[in-house]
Amino acid sequence: MEYKLRYFGQLQDLTGKAEETINHKFKTIGGLRALIVERYPKLSNINFKIAQNNFIDKDSSPINGTLIDFLPPFSGG
Amino acid sequence: MIMNERYLRHIQLSQVGSAGQEKIRKSKLLVVGAGGLGCPALQYLVAAGVGTIGIMDSDLISVSNLHRQIIFNEEDLGENKALCAKEHLQTLNSEVKINAFPFDLTHENAKKYFDDYDIVLDGTDNFYTRYLISDQCILSNKVMIYGAIHKFEGQISVFNYQNGPSYRCLFPIAPKIGEIQNCTDLGVLGIVPGIVGIYQAAEAIKVILGLGNVLSGKLLCLNLLNHQNTILKFKKNKSEIEKIKKGGKIIPIDNKDCYIGYEISLSQLSNKEKIKWIDVRKTDELPRIRHLNSLTETVSIESLIGTKEKKIVFCQTGVRSKEFVKEMIKKGIENCFFLKEGAEKLDKWGLNKLNDKKHNEK
User: What is the rounded distance in angstroms from the CA atom of residue B294 to the CA atom of residue B290?
Assistant: First the structure.
């Protein structure tokens, strides 16, 4: 399955990417998180949210979207 | 009904009209943080004729604020943001009742100030205050207009609207210190908070008028570099909201990064921190505090320009030290604070610290 991944805020700085496409099989959002953290270990200390097809979902949810967004909280004001 | 010439262009909109303008006039809105987000929001909300506006901020205007907080000018350096914003805004619209609160929001005072308003606009730059606002909005049943920025990006949402989700539903776990880059480490294009702040003001007006689709249960993510603007939907997390409601009080988070204004208390200092102390009292004022190796009142402010370490100014009561810090900020000096307590308490604190150090060395 092909997924489009988009990184927001600080996650862009830490991955060095605004977006990328990957080919992989995932069952859950949590599985996707584990792979991304393995690929970019700097993300392991950040509690970011994951959205699929523009819906922020919990880690236990099955993957049914192909557009995946990684979203940290923003501090600035 | 008012048919005011000033708001004619509002009233001409069929979605607003005289009745809508009257709703705006009757509304009460509290802006927490008169900085990058709060200032532009305030300018439009005051111009729009929001009847009562509160502005809360303990911070003082420094030169590095001016590239984005364009309500302020060079003559305002060193002044308190809430008081100064009020002064400027009142000349923009004398009909608006503006209340300035030149201090920080705390878990002790939040209820008192929130109860007087309908809507709270989050213009803060730190997680500590943001979670305070979110919790108190749940407890006092107020709408929270959220905005936050990172470099060229912004996040906007409306929380606690018509029983909708809160900030904790989106981010239930507060970031630890260092997890997310803080306000002082982060650069930002000055226009970004301008756009996000004005977006917040627009959502506030929509809430007041019951207009269009409010960003409740939706997070608008803006990116000024690539125009990849996205709306991410999220669900209400009932247990997060119930946790606050059942406890009946705010649950302050541990991360106080960037929360402190220019006033600092001895209780906020750790024993290990490296601090440059500055004593601005006359040489005959007692007690003398020699063990902290403080600089004395003869120190020139110019010699402190560009120094990175934490600088804390003290005097006998905290009055002269505050004035000295204002002067430092005017000169663009960063990381400087004035001590809430006077020299006597600092003396005791310093001696304890010295004893601890000796004890540890044994």
Answer: 7
